[in-house]
């Protein structure tokens, strides 16, 4: 029996480059965001808050990354993921602490392997996801 299993995580340099690219995209869009990268265990690996970004969006960005890392799919996919589940599951899952069921969180995969996730908050869901995608693209990752 094995007592431990290896787990790949996003490297700090990639996490830093991803938050930088997401913020640069936000500047191009004229918005102020908070952006977080979590590793594959949901632990915060990098964070950046633009001056003037909403304070409540700090935790939302971190929780978007946590949610996307924990489930391995975009936070925007939760509405579809909840379809077909029991009413109790549809009502209860989105109420779980730290689970975010709206857009802006993307898993971070390299060659199909989940290494973590990126979460952005501060713009519309579409803008947040656009910034998150810019972060992934900067490090050669896919969502």
Question: In terms of topology, how is this protein built?
Answer:
Layout: H1 12-29, E1 34-39, E2 44-49, H2 56-71, H3 78-82, H4 87-92, E3 105-110, E4 113-121, H5 125-138
Antiparallel strand pairs: 1-2, 1-4, 3-4
Helix pairs in contact: 1-5
Features:
single chain; 143 residues; alpha+beta; Beta-Lactamase; four-stranded antiparallel beta sheet; 5 helices; 41% helix
Descriptive account of the structure:
This protein has 143 residues and is of the alpha+beta class. It starts with 11 loop residues before the first helix and ends in a 5-residue tail after the last helix. It is 41% helix and 19% strand. A 4-stranded antiparallel beta sheet has the order 2-1-4-3. Helix 1 crosses helix 5. Pfam families: HbpS-like (PF03928).
């Amino acid at each position: 029996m094995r007592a431990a299993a290896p787990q790949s995580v996003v490297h700090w340099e990639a996490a830093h480059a991803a938050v930088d690219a997401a913020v640069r995209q936000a500047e191009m869009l004229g918005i102020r965001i908070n952006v977080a990268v979590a590793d594959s265990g949901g632990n915060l690996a990098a964070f950046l808050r633009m001056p003037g970004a909403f304070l409540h969006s700090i935790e939302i960005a971190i929780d978007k990354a946590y949610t996307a890392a924990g489930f391995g799919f975009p936070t925007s996919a939760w509405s579809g993921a909840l379809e077909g589940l029991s009413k109790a599951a549809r009502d209860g899952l989105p109420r779980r602490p730290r689970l975010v069921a709206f857009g802006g969180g993307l898993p971070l995969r390299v060659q199909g392997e989940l290494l973590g996730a990126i979460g952005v908050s501060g713009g519309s869901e579409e803008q947040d996801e656009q910034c998150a995608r810019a972060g992934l693209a900067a490090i050669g990752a896919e969502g």
